[in-house]
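@channel sequence for tomorrow's demo:
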Amino acid sequence: MNIQEAFNNAAADYDNLRRILIPCFDEFYKTAVEIIPSNRLASLKVLDLGAGTGLYSSMVQSVFPNAEFTLLDLAFEMLEKAQFRFSKMGKFPRLLIGNYVEVDLVIPMTLLYQPYPFTICLFDLSTRF
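structure tokens (generated this afternoon):
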């Protein structure tokens, strides 16, 4: 089984496991959203690398209602969960399936901490380069 298959298989229970495996889950994600330095009504362009089920991105979306999201993940079934989660908010992010190390991201945006074309870039804390 490769990593893509493993995450596709884990998609159904992934969010429940996050609550169990991340100490102080609510406080952790609340803080991660609160530290984004921007006007809450700004029209941000957000890239989420390793978006998974869109758990964190959806929290950001709820605080930044005018933000537009691009969600990138290797696992199709994770992104299906993300699409469903966002659709319940009436939002429809751009979904990209692929390895973020290999995908060519030519999208007009600006990264928060680096000179790239995104306003904000979110990524899984387990991401390794």
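heads up for whoever presents: The longest strand covers residues 68-73.
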